[in-house]
Amino acid sequence: MKTENKDEFKQMNVFGTGSFNKDYAQYFIGNSYLNPLTNPQQCPVFLANVTFEPGCRNNWHIHHAEKGGGQLLICTAGEGWYQEEGKAAVSLTPGCVITIPAEVKHWHGAKADSWFSHIAVEVPGENTGNEWCEPVSDSEYEALNHESMKGAKNSEY
């Protein structure tokens, strides 16, 4: 369910907003928040609830790995977008699960008119690392939100 109301969203965001994502702020347009759900020193799989304010999105990026790796997104509250390079964007709502293989350039974030949260799961692999690329342009992003507001349907993964 879309919502621009922060207090209403907090009630929907069952995994909690967490703290301002200052360590990665340079890779986001707008503000994001990070609530780690597992401790990397105690669990081989890192999970975190990532919350995006309306209009916030991360840069294009790639999860590299020689074997395994990649990322899973489990959408939990609000509405957002996911897009792989060269493909149509996917509208994200609570319950959507996106599987992102290693070496796939992509981005994700909130719709312009809604807060959005997903649990990000780092898939274990060998020699993993992230490469942060260019920001999603305002024109690319605004075109998605314009189509969404007209009621366009995007294909699901």
From TrEMBL:
InterPro entries: Cupin_2 (IPR013096), HNL-like_cupin (IPR047263), RmlC-like_jellyroll (IPR014710), RmlC_Cupin_sf (IPR011051). It comes from Brotonthovivens ammoniilytica. Residues 50-113 form the Cupin type-2 domain. This is Cupin domain-containing protein. CDD domains: cupin_HNL-like. Signal peptide: none annotated. It holds the Pfam family Cupin_2.
